[in-house]
Amino acid sequence: MILQAEGVRKLYGEFCALDGVSLAIAPGEFVSIIGPNGAGKSTLINVLTGVLRPSAGTVRFKERDIRGIGPVALARLGMARSFQLVPIFPDLTVLETLQAAVVSRLGRGTRLFASLRGDREVQEGALEVAELFGLGGKQHALAKELPQGDKKLLDVASAFALRPEIILLDEPTSGVSTADKTVIMEILVSASRRIGIRAILQVEHDMDIVFGYSDRIIALHQGRVLADAPPAEIRADARVVDMVIGRRHLPRAGSPPPPSSPPAGERAG
Ligand SMILES: Nc1ncnc2c1ncn2[C@@H]1O[C@H](COP(=O)(O)OP(=O)(O)O)[C@@H](O)[C@H]1O
Ligand SMILES: [Mg+2]
Fold first, then answer.
1. For residue 20, which of 35, 33, 7 has the smallest C-alpha distance?
2. Residue 216 has what pLDDT?
3. Cα of 44 from ligand 2 centre, angstroms
4. Domain that holds residue 178
5. What confidence tens digit (pLDDT) does each residue in 215-230 have?
């Protein structure tokens, strides 16, 4: 197991947001966390990424206790996350945003920022990720001026630029069109293969995406794991379908991922 949580409990004052949550992610897995609003999905991601310390229970990454370790230290160990709030640095360009991620991966702190332009490793690393994510032609655009789909891509790309072994994504496709969602997922999966990311854990609402891409689905409900199983079993679990997914949102069995529209701009080829 690369990432493992056992008996995780998280209290906000009196309120119990996570209650006895256990899960394990193995190398090679693509796992989705689903659940209604307030189920505790974001809290769980924050606990798994060391942003929040659990009130009880353990969280281990590569056999190391990472409770409350914080995202910077965790990125050094090989776990990266994307943030729901994008862009993180609205006044930076696409390339500068990715350079900042590469600089942080290389562990050179902010000193290097002054000489960013001269550093080939940073330049090339950032450009490589920009191209991998179809943002090469927009490298000089300001992050804040990108269309929503590209903002999401830049957010995910920044996490990839850290070259993590595992990546955690909180709703990577929220607020973008269905066509753009599929583009983002296709890029995510192919970029993971190229860079050699060992596992992906995402929170996702769109059931076409969840059922189209996941090896395993974890359904959260009121802070507890209601089910943890491959898509075919989740589909057959009446409780999960009724309480978490909603029958009308369940994609038809065997239906492929939503059709991928031609990627915008220079993404092709
Ligand atoms: N900082 C906080 N303080 C108090 N309650 C919180 C805090 N963050 C989240 N909650 C509550 O915990 C529950 C789970 O929240 P969250 O993890 O954001 O759920 P989800 O991402 O599944 O929508 C919700 O009821 C939410 O109101
Ligand atoms: Mg959330």
1. 7
2. 98
3. 9
4. 3-267
5. 999 999 999 999 999 9
